[in-house]
UniProtKB/TrEMBL annotation:
Keyword set, alphabetical order: Signal, Transport
Family: Belongs to the bacterial solute-binding protein 1 family.
GO cellular component, one term: periplasmic space
Domain of life where this protein originates: Bacteria
InterPro entries cross-referenced by the UniProt entry: Bact_solute-bd_prot1, SBP
Location within or outside the cell: Periplasm
PANTHER family for the chain: ARABINOSE-BINDING PROTEIN-RELATED, BINDING PROTEIN COMPONENT OF ABC SUGAR TRANSPORTER-RELATED
The protein, known as: Probable sugar-binding periplasmic protein
Role played: Part of a binding-protein-dependent transport system for a sugar.
Amino acid sequence: MHWWVSPGEQASIQVIQQYQAERGIEWITTARKGSGTSSYMDAVRQRVASGAPPMASQAIGYDIQDWAMQGKLANLDAIAVDQEWEEVIPAEIQALSRYQGHWVAVPINAHATNRLWLNQKLLSQLELSAPDTWPELLQMLDKARAAGATPLAIGNEPWEHTLLFENVAAGTGGADFYRRVFLDLTPTAADDLLLLQSFERMRQLRSYMDAGRHNRSWDEATDLVRNGQALMQAQGTWVNGEFRAHGLIPEQDYACFRFPDTQGLFLFNSDQYMLFKDYPATPEIREAFASSLMDIELQRQLNIATGAAPARVDVPSATFDLCGQQAINDLRASNMRRTVMGSVAMGNANPGQVKEAIYTIVSSHLNDQLSDAEAVAQLKAAITSFSPSFPGTSR
């Protein structure tokens, strides 16, 4: 089971299917729209509860830990040792692929979420370049609005709003602030000011969004950038896969920039596959499937299509496009600095109940239902009231 249903995502799933077919494995897929949300996992839960689990399911972040804690997942330790997964996967991603020291999921990519995607034609017309700082970003948005374009495209899904917020917060407070507040869930009194500034900046960005955002999805917002109706979108590197699926070329049709003030950080969302131990597959089939997902050549082909960096840091980057190479280089550099950090929006930073609470607060604030101060108070309460239910919550 998987949730890859957009044009770019469908191209990605076809890479895996073709790779399996070449090895004599017929991979029958069931797609459920949901991008790792509770609605997708509800569909997985229904199958498991009915006694008909899939052999494998796409998953991200702490959802993997939840399934492992229930004892539903196959142990992949032998495969991981044989292929030396521990040596080639960043530790922060490994923390979500393992439960109580055992491998229970196979990471296939490392999407960066701290990215801006821009229409190259508008960028050139307005004589704009990459924004390194918050004031430079606002200047770009002002120019786009003056030219009659939608400055900032976004949809109506709470995870999108939270993805924008995590970028703003990381840029406002830096790596230590982000780790302390959103990974370790231990905000201090001194963090209140940075959180307030983050929500103030979100309120500023609201003024650059159009009214149509209330009735569109993330990929429809991507289409606005692709068609030149909007200047930019803050979104993960899966946008690169969408643009590729439409035949677009970096620096000719679109540009990819790091979100201002997040240089040196790699906020990640890692798509993974967890294998259910109660599915009646032979050990050989299960091993063949899991092993293939970690194959260097599959991860190269797959992530040229997805737009992400491979989950392995040793995949050659030469055949990736400019934005793909940027993602790979950023992942490698951040891995050395220990600034590869999980995305709040995509469930790689904290458990589901914390993520869902943050969704509600951030989305309510963006829709002008909470003041900046109210949003700060509710966010801190949601974070500090959480009690870890399994090892590895704080990293």
